[in-house]
Amino acid sequence: MQVGLQHYLVISALLFATGLLGVIMRRNLLVMYMSLELMLNAANLALVSFSRYNNNLDGQVLVFFIITVAAAEVAVGLALIVALFRKRQSAHVEDLTSMKL
Amino acid sequence: MGLPDILFYVFAALTLLCGLLVVANPFSRSPVTSAMFLVLTIISLAGLFVLLNAFFLAAVQIIVYAGAVMVLFVFVIMLLDLKEEERRHIKAFGFVTGVVSVGIILSVFLKSIGSTAKLALPAAANATTAGESDTHALGMLLFTKYTLPFEVISVLLLVAMIGVITLSKKDLK
Q1: Quick one: which of A22, A32, B64, B112 is 20 to 30 A from B38 by CA?
Q2: pTM attached to this predicted model
Q3: For residue B109, which of A13, A48, A50, A17 has the smallest C-alpha distance?
């Protein structure tokens, strides 16, 4: 069977679901962050395949911007995690309950 | 079934398998193994990008993600002492809510994908497989139609850099 747009979209949806599962299921901040990266990458894959099958390069430009923003986001997020770890000695979401009522 | 199709299935299987191992690895719960499997996922995604004729993005994916972002992750894992993580277990409640919500959202996705039009590869796109790639056209687009977003994103990177330096000061107020 010829590989078409649907195949790429299914892979993208499954990868997004994997990332979402990680964000909900895992309680470690670093692993949750990696799962977020998985979700961003799934969106990138969908955009690139749409751009290829519609013969329109705008999608690839958007992916370029998403990769840049993701790099900035990872840098800031990891700095936050390190600052948090210095204060609380934990990178576990269940230990971070100071905003709980 | 041609070679590109076989390569698609190989890369797709690798992507999904390694993605799943990032999230739930039955053999090791250390974040370091998650990070290593994330590298594998990103590299096989770059392979899928190559199959989609996005050569420049495949290179950027490997340089930025597998290079810069993963180095950041591994450095932070090294800075934090995460020995205790391996003793904690996944809670049954989290597992059940995760599986249920992911199942719901996945069924919505797959239903909408099933109803999308079956697009064939455009003829013009097939002609550009060899020699001249999309990279030239992508650069033209980036510096004509998308000049303003391009400049804004450079400011964003500067802001992120200043933010990170401020956040990692020793005496954070």
Answers
A1: B112
A2: 0.89
A3: A13
Q: Is A55 on the interface with B (CB under 8 A)?
A: yes
Contact flag B82-A30 (C-beta cutoff 8 Å): yes
Residue B124 has pLDDT above 80, yes or no: no
B46-99 per-position pLDDT tens digit: 999 999 988 999 999 999 999 999 999 999 988 887 766 566 667 788 888 889
Q: Which of B72, B106, B110 sits opposite A78 (nearest CB)?
A: B72
| Structural domain includes residue A90 | yes
The overall average pLDDT reported for chain A is: 89
pLDDT digits (tens, 9 = 90+) for B22-36: 988 888 778 889 999
Nearest alpha-carbon partner for B54 in A59, A14, A10, A5: A59
Helix then strand then coil, % of chain A, to nearest 5:
80, 0, 20
CATH code of residue A81: 1.10.287.3510
A79 Cβ under 8 Å from any chain B Cβ? yes
Domain assignment of residue A56, given as a range:
5-96
Task: Specify which residues A28 forms β-bridges with.
Answer: A92
* B:134-153 residues touching chain A, CB 8 A cutoff: 134, 137-138, 141-142, 145-146, 149, 153
Assess B122–A contact: CB distance below 8 Å, yes or no: yes
Per-residue pLDDT, A28 = 86
Residue type, B19: G
**Are A9 and B113 an interchain contact pair (Cβ–Cβ within 8 Å)?**
yes
Whether residue B61 contacts residue A68, with contact meaning beta carbons closer than 8 Å, is answered with no
Q: Is residue A101 part of a domain?
A: no
Which residue among A5, A34, A51 sits closest to B22, beta carbon to beta carbon? Answer: A34
